[in-house]
Design goal:
DNA_ligase_ATP-dep_N; DNA ligase i, domain 1; DNA ligase ATP-dependent N-terminal domain-containing protein; elongated; 144 residues; ligase; mainly alpha; ATP-dep_DNA_ligase
């Protein structure tokens, strides 16, 4: 186990040992939804006692494949290790999403506007407006 941990990826180490587990056998096919994962993460964030946290983690493990559990741990650690930055991910949503995010720094607003564009009929303009909203903090301009 120490050798695996020294590689620097705790989630991968957990995945390897979970695959060999006899106490909680990993599922072969995932049945967790994103909403359920989000609910488990929220519940976990509200708990302070180790026993309560362990109870939630056991629930997650019983419903997970080895890869599900690995990604759940990465979500907890805030390190998905997908080597994709904000620009790559937002560009995948819409070509103008990153520019809109740079202007407003309001991710929720950008996602909501991109989502609204997905309801536009084919052939109609789907340009995303790049705008800042009132009372939304923006980066200060630097004097050149």
């Amino acid at each position: 186990m120490i050798e695996d941990l020294e590689r620097g990826d705790v989630a991968e180490t957990i995945r390897l040992f979970f695959e060999e587990s006899k106490a909680v056998v990993p599922l072969q096919k995932s049945d967790l939804t994103i909403q359920e994962v989000n609910k488990f993460l929220h519940e976990l964030s509200q708990l302070t006692k180790e026993e309560d946290q362990q109870r939630i983690l056991t629930k997650v493990a019983k419903r997970s494949t080895a890869n599900d559990l690995k990604m759940f741990v990465r979500l907890i650690k805030h390190d998905l290790r997908i080597n994709a930055g904000v620009k790559h991910i937002l560009d995948g949503l819409h070509p103008d999403a990153y520019a809109a995010f740079q202007t407003s720094h309001d991710l929720e607003d950008v996602i909501q506007r991109v989502s609204q564009l997905s309801h536009v009929k084919p052939g109609m303009s789907t340009k995303l407006s790049v705008e800042a909203s009132l009372m939304t903090p923006v980066l200060p301009m630097l004097v050149g």
